[in-house]
Write a structure and sequence with these properties.
The chain is an alpha/beta fold. The protein is built from eight helices and nine strands. It has helices at 19-32, 50-57, 73-83, 103-109, 133-150, 166-175, 183-193, 215-255; strands spanning 6-12, 37-43, 62-66, 88-92, 115-119, 126-127, 161-165, 198-202, 204-205. The termini are far apart. The mean pLDDT is 90.
Length: 256
């Protein structure tokens, strides 16, 4: 069977209530674009029957990957991205339904960029229900911390709607290790370090209640994770520079 044009990777934890609606919305939009596709739902050891709900839908274009334990969102997405076969690979959170209308524009942008980041902050974005003020403050604070430590200029690091060209997805997800929610920052910084191009484009988005992110509780472990990620990114930058310099050095040596 030929590889699909697009793979959609949906990391899911306790999403039984809404996963069917998201999958059907994704399929309708992608079919409308005329793209052969697959959807990979990576079930992160849900205890609400998420995987069983997806299986019961009996959708030919959907397959479920089950984690043996809760490994973290980053680990789930990494597994899906590396298991996917599409020339394009979309990271779509289980509540990404409002954002799917931007997919056609993102596919067009992927002709010029290796990574297209759906953004709630870029021009053209529309935000429905907004996050509570405390969550907005926490999110922006974490974003500033990530950008400061990783020198990654992407404004909306954590939006769960990103389109990757396959070579970028395979190289980046094969080189990164964070398993929690900070994986977004690490993958984008690593993509840039490896020489892949990134752009942001505005999407439609609405908040969903349920996040329990607590800055005081996670600030120390997150900072330690990001410092380790920074070391990996810097090693990648040095390795890329050394590889670029090698042909020039060999050419100079051949002229001696």
């Amino acid at each position: 069977m030929a590889a699909p044009a697009l793979s959609v990777v949906v990391p899911a934890y306790n999403e039984a209530a809404g996963i069917a609606t998201t999958l059907r919305s994704l399929h309708a939009t992608i079919a409308g674009l005329g793209l052969e596709h697959e959807i990979l739902v990576v079930d992160n050891a849900s205890d609400d029957g998420t995987a069983e709900v997806v299986d019961a839908l009996s959708l030919a274009y959907v397959r479920v990957l089950r984690n043996p334990a809760n490994l973290g969102k980053g680990a789930s997405l990494r597994r899906g991205m590396l298991a996917a076969g599409g020339a394009l690979r979309l990271h779509c959170d289980a509540d990404c339904g409002p954002s799917v209308d931007a997919l056609g524009r993102m596919v067009a942008l992927s002709q010029r960029f290796d990574v297209v980041v759906g953004s709630r902050l870029a021009a053209g974005a529309t935000v429905g229900r907004r996050q509570p003020v405390r969550r907005r403050i926490a999110g922006r604070s974490f974003g500033l911390l990530c950008r400061a430590l990783l020198r990654e200029p992407t404004r909306d690091l954590f939006c769960g709607f990103k389109l990757w060209r396959a070579p970028a997805a395979e190289a980046v997800y094969g080189a990164t290790v964070l398993t929690g929610w900070t994986f977004d920052a690490e993958t984008l910084a690593m993509a840039r370090a490896l020489g892949f191009s990134i752009t942001e484009t505005g999407i439609a988005w609405t908040d969903r209640a349920g996040s329990r992110l607590s800055m005081p509780r996670v600030i120390v472990p997150v900072t330690l994770e990001l410092l380790e990620a920074r070391r990996r990114v810097r090693r990648a930058v040095r390795a890329r520079a050394a590889a670029a310099a090698q042909p020039a050095a060999e050419a100079a040596g051949s002229r001696v």
